[in-house]
Amino acid sequence: MAKSNIFVGLEIGTHKICVVVGDAKADGSIKILGVGQAPSRGVRKGEIVDFETAQTCLQEALVRAEDRSDVMVRKVWLAITGPHLESVNNRGVLRIPDDQSEITEDDIEEVKEQASNVAIPPDNIFLHRIIRHYWVDGQEKVQNPVGMLGRKLEADYHIVHGIRNRVQNTIRCLREFPLEVEDVVFGPIAAAQVVLNREARSQGALLMDIGGGTTDYVLYEDGAIAASGSIGVGGDHITNDLAVVLKIPHSRAERLKVEHGSVLPAAGGSDDYIRLEGDATFDGVNVEREVLHGVIAARMEEVFNLVRKRILASGASLDRVAAGIFLCGGFEG
Q: What gap in Å lies between CA 36 and CA 62, rounded to an integer?
């Protein structure tokens, strides 16, 4: 039986659930057959906190994806996020036996296991072990050492791990449908494969995926991942800030953020104020645009500083981000 070329990606976010069905072509491209989205409930900071409610939302997104793609979804690639996910870089070193003439696939697997020999919390599991660079007898950045002659093989890996139960709770939710999880992928690493081309990764780039409850990031240096992680601050925090500072309902704060929000200083002019009309439960108010932008800018400055601190604490540097910072994420109701 021929192997199916249909792949399905699923992300259960704080604000929306998205199912994407694609057909992988021989040239490596993917044709999108259908997308199903639904507002997300029962999810907090990218993690399920109410199984039944989240399953109802997932069912809605799944049905829409199946209808639009004419594909019955049975297997998915699951993108996850959450502040519990952490990463570390580690090197494995392997001495090649004297009676062996060249480096083999088995040697690659062994050096990978050695690089994965890092101390992680007992309740955590490995999600990714991604190669950064190989060295053969001191020769740097070997692309593929299999078949090369050498006495010492070294390999740097980027390792992502997270709390076992939090990962498995999401998988368990999907099995109720039933859906089989092909694999679990850390969200920003998947996003970087689409957003960042090879040149950007080679020059050095920071991708930040700003969601409702989290901000995820991945940093590339010399074409390889240098750092990745997730902080528990996102767009919802901006909405809450606006609701508190401006003393307006949460729903009005969200709409104000989406329709008029900016991190740039408000320019003076005739539209210095934004009128929020009243209703049965709200008297209405004039919002000063400068205050609106100032609240948003303050929270976003915090987000960037938190990401910066996490990256520097990992031992990586932001000095070589020549391609710049790439922002993605966001939600349309």
A: 6
Share of the chain above pLDDT 90, in %: 74
Q: Are 208 and 215 contacting, i.e. CB atoms less than 8 angstroms apart? A: yes
Which tokens in the block code for residue 103?
């480096």
pLDDT of residue 2: 47
Dump pLDDT digits (tens) for 219-273.
999 999 999 999 999 999 999 999 999 999 999 999 999 999 999 886 555 578 8
Helix residue spans in 247-321 (DSSP H) = 250-260, 289-313
pLDDT, one tens digit per residue, over 275-304 is 888 887 888 889 999 999 999 999 999 999
CA-nearest of 125, 50, 36 to 86 is 125
The token pair that represents 213 in the structure block: 């409850």
Q: List residues bridging with 9 in a β-sheet.
A: 20, 77
CA 61 to chain centre: 20
pLDDT range class, residue 333, cuts 50, 70, 90: very low
Residues 65 and 73 sit within 8 Å (Cβ to Cβ): yes
Q: 7, 156, 19, 22: which is closest to 88 by C-alpha?
A: 156
**AA letter at 185:** V
- By CB atoms closer than 10 A (0-12, 13-18, 19+), residue 71 is middle
Q: How far apart are CA 237 and CA 114, in angstroms?
A: 41
- Report whether 163 contacts 122 (CB < 8 A): no
Asked if 222 and 141 touch (Cβ cutoff 8 Å), the reply is: yes
Q: Which residues contact 208 (CB under 8 A, 6 or more apart)?
A: 188, 215, 216, 217, 307, 325, 326, 327, 328, 329
To which residue do tokens 């070294």 refer? 154
- By the 10 Å C-beta count (0-12 exposed, 13-18 middle, 19+ buried), 178 is classed as exposed
SS (H, E, C) 166-186: HHHHHHHHHHCCCCEEEEEEE
Q: How far apart are CA 157 and CA 127, in angstroms?
A: 13
pTM, rounded to two decimals? 0.90
Please give the DSSP secondary-structure letter assigned to residue 279: B
pLDDT for position 28: 79
Instruction: State residue 313 phi and psi, 5-degree precision.
Output: -65, -25
